[in-house]
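This part of the workshop introduces the protein records we will be handling. Getting from the letters to the C-alpha cells is the skill we practise here. The record below serves as our worked example for the rest of this section.

…
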Amino acid sequence: MIIEMAEQLQSKKIAKNTVLLYFRMILGMVVSLYTSRVVLKVLGVDDFGIYNIIGGVIVMFSFINTFLTSACQRYLSFSIAKDSIDETKKIFSTSLFIHIIVLLLFALVAETAGLYFVYKELVIPEARFTAALYVFHIMVVESCMSIFKVPYNAAIIAEEKMNFYAYTSIIENVLRLVVVYLLVILPFDKLIVYSFLHLFVSVIMLLWYKIYSEKRFCYCTNLVRYDKKYLKSMTLFSGWNLFGSIADIGYKQGTNIVLNLFYGVVLNAAMGIATTIRSSIYSFISNIQVAANPQIIKSYAIGEYSYYSNLIYRISKYSYYLMLFLAIPVILNIQYILQIWLGNAPEYSASLIVLGLIFCLIDCLHGPLWTSMQATGKIRNYQLLVSTILLLNIPLSYIALKLGYSPNSILVIQIVVSLLTLIVRLLFSCRCAVLSMTDYLKHVILPICVVTLLSVPLPFYVATGFEDNWRKLLATGFTSVVSIIVSVLFVGITKRERYSIFQMIQKRIKK
C-alpha cells in the first residue's frame, strides 16, 4: 500500500511537470510558427536556407558537447536519488570543469575544420558568402555559451524544477518576438542582424540559468575543479556516448548537408520548414519524456525496478498516442496549413513534413529505452551498434540522391533505419536494463498497433469528402480526437490506468 501511494505521488509529480513543460512548449510553438513565417519573409528563401545550412554545420561539430550532456544529467540524478550533497557537489564541479574544456575544444574544431567545410564544400551564392561567414562565427560563439549552460540545465532537470521552464519560456519567447521586430525595422543586412540578435538572446538565457541554479541548489557553485574519480567515470561514460552523438548529428544534420550538395539552399529552406513543424510537434512528446527521465534514473538507482519498468512502458505508450493525436490532423491538412502559414512554401516542404511526422511516430519510442540504458551505465556495446546503424543514414542518403531519387528518399531512409534501431535498443534494454521483451510487446507494441489500426481510418475517410480548407481541418481534427480518445480508453491502456483517469476526471468535476 505504501509503495503504491509512493508511486502515485511520483506519477502526479511527473504529470505536474509535464503540464508545466506543455505550457512552455505551446507558447514556444506559437511564437516559433509566427517568427518562422516573418523570418522567411524578411530574409527570403536563399538567406533562410543559408542560415539553416550554416546552423547544420555548427551542430555537426557540436557533438563534442552533446555526448557529455547525458552524462551530466545521469550522474546528477543518481547522486540526488542517493541524497548525497557532497557527492553531488563533486559531480557538478567536475561537470563544469569538463564543459569548459569541451567549450574550448569545440571552438577550436569549429573554427578550423568547420570553417574549412564552409569554404570548400557548401553551395552558397557568392554574393552572400561574406554574410554567411558572419553567421558562422556568431553561431560558434552562441554554441559555446550553450555548452557552458549544460551543467546548470542538467541540475534543473535532475531536481525536476519544471516550473522554472514555464517562467523561462515567457522571458525567452518575449525576447524572440523582440528579435523579429528589430529584424524588420533595423536597416542593416538582415541575415547578419538576425544572427547577432539570436546571440544576444543566448547571452541573457545563459545568465538566467546560471543565476537561478546558484540561488536554488547549494551544489551549484562557481568553483571549477574536478574530482579524479568522477572525472574518469564521467569521461568514460561520455566517451561511449560520443558515438551516439555523432550518429545523431549524422541523421539529423548530415542529411541536410547532403541535400545542399545536390540541390542547394532552396531545398535546405524546405527542410528547415519541415524541421520547424516536426520539432514543434515533437516537443509535445519530449516534454513527457523530459519530465519522466529523472524518475526513471532515480528509481533504477535505488532499486525500484517494478516502478522503473512500468514507468518506461507507460511513457513509451503515452508518447506514441500523443504523437499520433497531433500527427494525423497535420498530415491530412498539410497543404492548407502551409498555405495559411507561409503562403508560398518551398518545393517539397509538404512531403518532407509528412514523412518527418511518420518518422517521429517511431522515434518517440526510442527515448525511454535510451534512458533505461543510460541509467545502467552499461552503454559501450549498445552505443557502438546503435550508432553504427544510425550513421548508415548519411551514405544511404547520398547514394539515393546520386541515383536520382527525390529528396523525399532521405526521410524514407530515416524511417527504415529508425525501425531497425528501435529493435536493437529494445534487445539491449531487455538484456542489460531489467526490462522484459514479453512485457514490452504486451504493454507497448500491441496497444499502439491496435490503437493505430482503429483510429486512423475514420479521419482519412472523412478527409476524402473535403477540399483543402478550414472545414476539412475542423472535420479531420474532430474525428481524429474522437477516434483516438475512444481507441486509447478502451484498448490502449490498462484497467488500472483507465480507472485512474476516470477518478482524476471526477475529482476535477467536483472541484
